[in-house]
Amino acid sequence: MENLDRMIDDFTHPTTGSLHGAAFIAVDNHGHIIYQRAAGRAGSAPDDASPLKLDSLYWIASLTKLVTAVATVQLVERGNLTLDEDVRDKVQELRDARVLCSMKRDSVGSAQPEFQAVRGKLTLRNMLSHAAGFGYDSSSPLLQEWSKSQGRTAHTFKGSMDGYRHPLIYQPGKSWEYGAGVEWAGQLIERVTASTLEEYMQTNIWSRLGATSTTFHPELRPDTLPPQMQMGERVSVGQGNESIKPGKVILGYPLKDDIGGIGLFSTPMDFIKLLSALVQGGGPLLSKESVDLLFAPQLSDESRMAMSKALGKQMRRVLGIHSMDDAEQADHSLGGPVTLKDIPDRRRRGTVSWGGLPNLHWWVDRETGVAAALFTQLMPPADAVVTDLLIEPEKALYRIIDRARKSAGEPKL
């Protein structure tokens, strides 16, 4: 464990490190925490020496997607939803959805949208696996051009569902693009349960786990939530901690809507309780069969190929994808990308994982019996240093697990 401690401390060293703070936590499939450490500062300003703690509060951004996926599968398990129904029957805002094919310039140079009707169903299965045709206007030049042509001011980080009321960008099931399908799944949950997503998750997920510091609305609980880790922004590369300046949470708060793809605040200690339940088989949230469903590959060959091309360099490193044309290493489940082949010295085949915009990461490796999360608050996303901080401690963690298995007379992983 000392080597793992040293890695975390080196990355967050106040003078030579390259992050102002980070927390790493791992749990086994018996519910035991096998490693936990928070190191560095909770404040992003150089003169703020307040120590980071394991129960510090973070904006977890797209880690929210796993929670919404769990909630959705709970409702599938209960018979309230099915994965292959057309969600447009229950979400009025999607009834007139169309596919934006292009923005065509007219004779005076104005951009005019060209649309296709949606062919087939808009399903939960495709929405949760990012194969339904949704994008994010924050990352889609096509949607940005469409928004400009419409005089639209809403956007991904506005803090309301107005930011996701835009066309699809491909036919459902025919490609892959990281986008707002999970946000709309959250709206579907609200419609079928007649509750807010906050209310549903508090009753059906967080209270069952004994997790008390996770919410869409931290502004409503100023006296009961732990102190928040401040956002940092890397403004240069190669200058260690001096490259980080104070940043901000870019999602508009207070939220107008409970946004099921990016809206939660949580702590490492709360979130690991969710991962622990999943690596142990689902209780008290889901049956084992439902966890199998949550983590099963879902993509067509066409969508899987598109995913490998759409993922950025750092996420390909995390998933062990060696080139943009490698469609054999990873697929996408309802809960996140799923590794199809072992990654040497790291996670095993069947591991499901994902991250969050301010450089957070989680994974659940049911074959090994380990789940873990790395928490930071650093922008911009896809920071190469944080990818290193994920991969190197991950390797160290698996070495520790291998040694423990060897000592117990069990075969090496």
UniProtKB/TrEMBL annotation:
<dbReference type="InterPro" id="IPR012338">
    <property type="entry name" value="Beta-lactam/transpept-like"/>
</dbReference>
<protein>
    <submittedName>
        <fullName>Beta-lactamase/transpeptidase-like protein</fullName>
    </submittedName>
</protein>
<dbReference type="InterPro" id="IPR001466">
    <property type="entry name" value="Beta-lactam-related"/>
</dbReference>
<feature type="domain" description="Beta-lactamase-related">
    <location>
        <begin position="16"/>
        <end position="387"/>
    </location>
</feature>
<dbReference type="InterPro" id="IPR050789">
    <property type="entry name" value="Diverse_Enzym_Activities"/>
</dbReference>
<dbReference type="Pfam" id="PF00144">
    <property type="entry name" value="Beta-lactamase"/>
</dbReference>
<comment type="similarity">
    <text>Belongs to the class-A beta-lactamase family.</text>
</comment>
<keyword id="KW-0378">Hydrolase</keyword>
